[in-house]
Amino acid sequence: MRTxxxxxxxxxxxxxxxxxxxxxLAAVPTPSISHQLPLRTVLLELARRxxxxxxxxxxxxxxxxxxxTEVDLSESYxxxxxxxxxxELPDATSPVAFFQMLLDGARYGCQFQFGLTLMKEFLKxxxxxxxxxxxxxxxxxxxxxxxxxxxxxxxxYTSLGATSLIRKTFGSPINPSYIPDYNLGYTDHMTFWQRxxxxxxxxxxxxxxxxxxxxxxxxxxxxxxxxxxxxxREIDHNFSLMLVNNHFSVSYPVPNTxxxxxxxxxxxxxxxxxxxxxxxxxxxxxxxxxxxxxxGSNVRSTAMPPxxxxxxxxxxxxxxxxxxxxxxxxxxxxxxxxxxxAKWLPQQDVLAHPNVRLFITQGGLQxxxxxxxxxxxxxxxxxxxxxxxxxxxxxxxxxxRRLDLEDVTKDSVMEAIQTVLEDKSYxxxxxxxxxxxxxxxxxxxxxxxxxVEYVIRHQGAPHLRSAALDLHWWQLLLLDVxxxxxxxxxxxxxxxxxxxxxxxxxxxxxxxxxxHRITAPIPYGPGYDIYFxxxxxxxxxxxxxxxxxxxxxxxxxxxIILLIWLLCTTSHICKVQSTYTFxxxxxxxxxxxxxxxxxxxxxxxxxGSNVQSSAMPPxxxxxxxxxxxxxxxxxxxxxxxxxxxxxxxxxxxAKWLPQQDVLxxxxxxVRCNGPLGCRAYxxxxxxxxxxxxxxxxxxxxxxxxxVEYVIRHQGAPHLRSAALDLHWWQLLLLDVxxxxxxxxxxxxxxx
Length: 751
Fold this sequence. Notes:
The protein is an alpha/beta fold. Among the domains are: about 275-440, Rossmann fold (3-Layer(aba) Sandwich), CATH 3.40.50.2000; about 590-700, no CATH class. Helix content is about 45%, strand content about 10%.
């Protein structure tokens, strides 16, 4: 209880009003309910915790909720339905065409939404907010709105996975050798040709982003921003946080910076509601089980070609199971007796019914989440966007089959249904996967709320920003370093070549050949400083003279540093700190008295457990003593020997000290004040200590949870990065680059 009160007091003193209810603005301009639901769940929880929340949404709840206000943009949704048909969009599965379509649709959406009366009334209020949560989906007008509202800290949000373009704006790696584009049907284990095309799509997308998003949309930004806005690129690269409603459990492990927070299944409701009576009776009476068929909220079954609808009906007529079909029209011509249709269905409650044995879905992320949560095997019919990506993940996990719309016939539908229903491995695989998924889903809402409040408490949390965002692309790829090394290597090679030619010509002169005998050097002998012999695949052993800066210990340290760097770039490496902050040791009475009576403060001096102060050179020890003699503070020195020659009156030594107790209930020196006589150091350390203590929170519990997680899931092989299965030249795309250069060379030769 005392600790809780102290923490609360520290929070109030350090953070002031930011510990109390904050003003939060959020906007999800995409006119789709699946985009709205996850963030709405987070916002309602924030409102329940006392924050004042305003949500700009195309799907308002039309209910009075404490601390929660909505700006109704539902006219935008009706306009979208009337003017766009996703079933008829050309090249809907082409990543480049889809990206271009999103940008064009976002521009149209901005013009329509900012022209609505309710939006204009909201803008007249000119309120200030502590944070602004924006859907990152191409709507640059809301970037302009952020500037107009005083540039509060920005949090990005996506109801889908974080694309490479989004991850790039946070400084995360976007290596196309093992990170597939969300609009492609590739897994993280790609063939050469898939990696080639994946790299091409990434470069094309980056090019469109540069030419269209950061060039053409710059003018659009100024329409909504007010005077003197920052550039679109500056805004896009300075988001404090990214909430991603997708998770490696339903996707693939990829390296993320700490400010990209993966969540999943935020919209899934824990409590079940009664089904409509006719639907409930239909499901309850299905002795052979039920096939549930829905293409989601954006793709309509009624828009499918008549021959495809007929193929589904013929297939359904030939199976013993009942079929519940989300059909958006009043009637379905030729409907068999075992088929029931409805314009809308409570999907989560339907999937939770024990008689539902198969889910035919378009592969949307939220449908995929719900199938995983309720452990229902699937047949995926992808149409656009990330649906093909999700369906391929289902197939790879062995929990479903893929069926393309153009391949739909009576036989193909029946074969897919019978395979999934009769092969028990699909149900068993889904049960195993559901157990994994539920573990991560259960904590997603709590993590989302914690991170939003974290950004508010720390005024944008600028310490989360990656330094990668401040590098040019050639610096990020180390091309300048590589060019320098190649230049130095080429220069050395040229000098050696010239020198060897001169030496050869000098030695082979007739006068020299008469006086000298040339003997080839042996491979190894006393005259050599180093000899390398192969020990095993990929390893060498060096024998070097003592004192060399290139001895084997140096290479071991370099190897460890590189290994840590590589490990820290994978999403599943747990970041655990200060797990050794245990109950403090009781301090010796003499040490306590020494500290308590220090009117001018104490300097604590310790070199840790591995480096001994007593092993320092005598002149260095003397320098410390001379310095300590000139300060009014007392000095507590961890000195491992029995005596300290020349010890001063203000210096006390001990072979061992309870460091945490000495530092005053701090996790090592991190939480304590900085150098004396400079308020800036102390103030900076106090601010940093607040940040550090939040993350230190429960590291031991996290460590234990992850250990048990690996045990529960038998090694958790789903955490393994596909990068580990690539050769180094594949990881660096050197084979792809070599192929492109070879093709270019052949083309140049032929032409």
